[in-house]
Amino acid sequence: MPQTLSYLRESASQTAGPFVHIGLAPGAAGFDIYRQELGHDIAGPNAKGTRIRVEGVVIDGMGSPVKDVLLEVWQANADGHYAHPESGTVEDGFRGWGRVITDFDSGEWSFDTVKPGPVAGRNGTVQAPHLNLWIVARGINIGLNTRMYFPDEAKANGRDPVLNLIEWDNRRATLIAALHQDGDIPVYRFEIRLQGEGETVFFDI
Amino acid sequence: MTPADFYQRDRRLHPPALTPDYKTSVARSPRYSMISLENTVSEVTGPTFGHGDIDPIDNDLISNYAHTGDPVGERIIVHGRVLDENARPVPGTLVEIWQANAGGRYRHKKDSYLAPIDPNFGGCGRTLTDQNGQYAFRTVKPGAYPWRNWVNNWRPAHIHVSVFGTAFAQRLITQLYFEGDPLIPKCPIVQTIPDPEAIEQLIAKLDLNATIPLDSIAYKFDIVLRGRRSTWFENRPEGN
Do A16 and B162 count as a contact with CB atoms less than 8 A apart? Predict the structure, then answer.
């Protein structure tokens, strides 16, 4: 008999279901229970860099907005550091993590943050500024990972090692937001298509 | 420096995106293959939480929404450990849960099931694991409830569980089921998981040793997150 390996196996994922808000955003479910809900303030008051808004909608295979999605963002600060011991140091109050839900009627979501800086890639490469996104909802059995890149970073995007892993140029475009201005605030709009024409690229990270 | 990778997620253990018996997945599942990434700092880091973020009462669903008395239902303790695939504890990680009340009704404006709301039960809780990866919640056992999939589908009693780990690559949402529940093998959501042993791993075991006599019965539920490779041939300041 050969020796046996002693690794455990990861717990299997299950859908977050239609009532994910009760646990992760109870205010949206219609009641207050916690002193503070987590994930509302991504960058904090001391963050350097450009204040931006990110907005979008998640669209299903029928072309309809998904109205019960919960989305989490994980991003670096303007210097390209994450709020984590394995990255650099960040400003006091910079969390880099946010959690938003969609409007129940329109499916629109948005959050305010700062634009991240370029982040170290593998083997000395540099990754273009990006937001790491994770989407859960009813009907989604395992959280979907994707990235949002910035349209005003064309040069950095052209060299980004992750975008360049995607062999189809037209699919790379699904990860690049559209930019418009709302007064002084740059607004990046990112439409996530779960299925079909223009399907967003999802990653197995 | 390139960070140490997490073990590849075993996509044959997890449910695939498209599982037609769970109807909502049909229009919400990508048709193209995922692009597999080698980990970068973007994936091996993740948010951290501290005791300033939450309150001690947040893990006690029997008291955290009690207004006129205790909620109705079977008083239970759910406890266990958060471990990685190397069987190492994951300390200080945020565990969040949500569930229906004893009658299978959620406190959510979109839930229209005729079973009543319990005025003393909110149905959500959160806690941080201790240095050994241990967590515990006190709650009432949720009831089964019907859902519109086939006309006669009933979810087994379950508690939704969300865990962070130390990295965005470990982020996981799953569901806890209860030992012996005959609805488990009938449920199209449970059956999205192709691996029978992986289903077993989501079933909490009755734990009489952890009950509080004359007060609360206990179930044990361990959560396993992805493990991480050692970089044998690469210098890491923190060692292997």
Answer: yes
Q: Is domain B11-26+41-225 classified as CATH 3.30.413.10? A: no
Give the number of other Cβ atoms within 10 Å of residue A148's Cβ.
21
Nearest of B45, B59, B163 to residue A11 by alpha carbon: B163
pLDDT (0 to 100) of residue B234: 60
CA separation for the pair B62, B64 (Å, rounded): 6
pTM: 0.96
B230 and chain A in contact, CB less than 8 A = no
Whether residue A26 lies within 8 A of chain B, CB to CB, comes out as yes
Name the E strands within chain B: 35-36, 75-84, 94-98, 124-128, 134-140, 145-147, 153-155, 158-163, 172-178, 203-206, 217-220, 223-225
CATH of domain A36-193: 2.60.130.10
The pLDDT of residue B240 is 47
The pLDDT tens digits for B44-95 are 999 999 999 999 999 999 999 999 999 999 999 999 999 999 999 999 999 9
Catalytic-residue membership of B177: no
Question: One-letter amino acid identity for B166?
Answer: T
CB B52 within 8 A of CB A48: no
Burial group, residue B209, by CB count within 10 angstroms (0-12, 13-18, 19+): exposed
Q: Which two tokens stand for residue A104?
A: 């129940």
Does B17 contact A at CB distance below 8 Å?
Answer: yes
Half-sphere exposure of A81 (CA within 13 A, CB side): 14
Interval A163-169 mean pLDDT: 96
Domain ranges of chain A: 36-193
pLDDT attached to residue B220: 98
